[in-house]
Amino acid sequence: MKKQFLDSGKIVGTHGIKGEVRIEPWADSPEFLCAFKKLYLDERGETAIKVKSRPHKNITLCKIEGIDTIEAAERLRGKIVYIDRDDIKLDEGVHFVQDLIGLEVRDFETDEVYGTLTDVLRTGANDVYEITRDGKKYLAPVIDEVVREINTEKGYVLITPMKGIFDDAD
User: Fold this and answer.
1) Torsion over CA of 62, 64, 70 and 74, rounded to 10 degrees?
2) How far is CA 126 from CA 28, 90, 122, 142, in A?
3) Exposure b/e, 37-52, CB count within 10 A at least 16 = b
4) What is the pLDDT of residues 86-95, one digit of tens each?
């Protein structure tokens, strides 16, 4: 079951003296969080905060309605911020990392199970999927030649592994 409220960043500090906070975004870019007018301070969506955000280098600067002093902003340091998945429409073929973690990774042609997708690593050129089987970790590049199908509803990723990804590869 997909989580409705997704952890999307962490408040890592303050900015200025008027209550702005610095958020380390857990997204493709700081701009992603700037699309939201409302964030949440809990994973159930019970504590909504109205925000105005802007990117600044690799972080998101965020002005929270009702937080007007550096002292009030400082009390939020370390808090995780969440987004409501209904507040964003992802492009076709784009997935939240949290929806990918835990998917079964299988062979595109034979349906052989390679393991479970346990992490998505950002390398710059392309993402890399970490696949874990029997405690051992394998890395597969997220490129069209390797990742053939992703079905988060049915819980699987189909791949055509490159030679050398798995110990028993031809």
Assistant:
1) -80
2) 12, 18, 7, 6
3) eebbbeeeeeeebebe
4) 998 888 888 8
User: How many angstroms separate the CA atoms of 6 and 2, rounded?
Assistant: 9
- Domains, the chain: 5-85 (2.40.30.60), 97-159 (2.30.30.240)
Task: Check whether 45 has a pLDDT greater than 90.
Answer: yes
Query: For the whole prediction, is pTM greater than 0.85?
Result: no
Q: How many angstroms from the chain centroid is the CA of residue 10?
A: 12
CA distances from 93 to 12, 32, 77, 151, 162 (A): 31, 17, 34, 10, 21
Which tokens is 58 given? 């690799």
How far is it, in rounded angstroms, from Cα 162 to Cα 159?
9
